[in-house]
Design goal:
The protein is mainly alpha-helical. The protein is 63% helix and 3% strand. It folds into 3 domains: 48 residues, 50s Ribosomal Protein L19e, Chain O, domain 1; 53 residues, Non-ribosomal Peptide Synthetase Peptidyl Carrier Protein, Chain A (Orthogonal Bundle), CATH 1.10.1200; 57 residues. It starts with a helix and ends with a helix.
């Protein structure tokens, strides 16, 4: 049964699209007999012609927007910053022990893994772990490191001596200048005295 014309009439009278109209299959003969707009309104009132609800989001429901950094009112999680600070501190300490020869390569790698897994909460915790190992001697310094420190000390001493010599030369130059000035002043005083005696 072709009811396309009836659908067009119903869409105009009820003010909706054709896709939203729904006819009852039981009362198709009554819909076919409807000619005027009043008939269609009557059928709509009886529930023979119904209107489907609008698909999609409802207008009265607010859309959820993403919150920007200025709207977030909550405590900032500083876990990452704390992790970075502790790991840098512990890695630097482990590297200094390795360079001094306190830690061998195997133990150094083990400690690095433990630092990454965040097993040490602080430097004291790391020291406690190292104290359990009998091989670790914190006062130990390797021969290579001793040679390096001696070379550095010699360089520093040489620089200090050079600075002292320069200061001594500058001081001597100032003394010489003052001495010359004093000598000139003495000559001037002697000449004045001789002139006065002649008069």
């Amino acid at each position: 049964m072709n009811l396309s014309k009836k659908k067009e009439l119903a869409a105009k009278t009820l003010g909706v699209g054709k896709g939203r109209l729904q006819f009852k299959t039981e009362n198709l003969n009554e819909i076919k007999e409807a000619i005027t707009r009043q008939d269609i309104k009557q059928l709509h009132g009886e529930g023979i012609i119904s209107i489907k609800p609008i698909k999609g989001r409802k207008k009265n429901v607010k859309r959820k927007h993403r919150r920007g950094p200025g709207k977030i009112k909550m405590k900032v999680n500083k876990r990452k910053q704390e992790y970075v600070k502790i790991t840098r501190k512990l890695r630097a300490y482990a590297m200094s022990l390795r360079d001094r020869g306190v830690l061998d390569l195997e133990l150094y790698k083990k400690i690095r893994n433990k630092i990454r897994m965040r097993e040490f909460k602080s430097k004291a915790g790391m020291k406690d772990f190292l104290n359990k190992h009998d091989d670790v001697d914190f006062d130990f310094v390797s021969k290579e490191k001793k040679v390096e420190t001696k070379k550095v000390k010699k360089k520093i001493e040489a620089k200090q001596k050079a600075v002292k010599k320069d200061k001594a030369h500058v001081a001597a130059d100032h003394l010489n200048k003052d001495g010359k000035k004093k000598a000139i002043n003495v000559k001037k005083i002697e000449t004045k005295k001789t002139k006065e005696t002649k008069k």
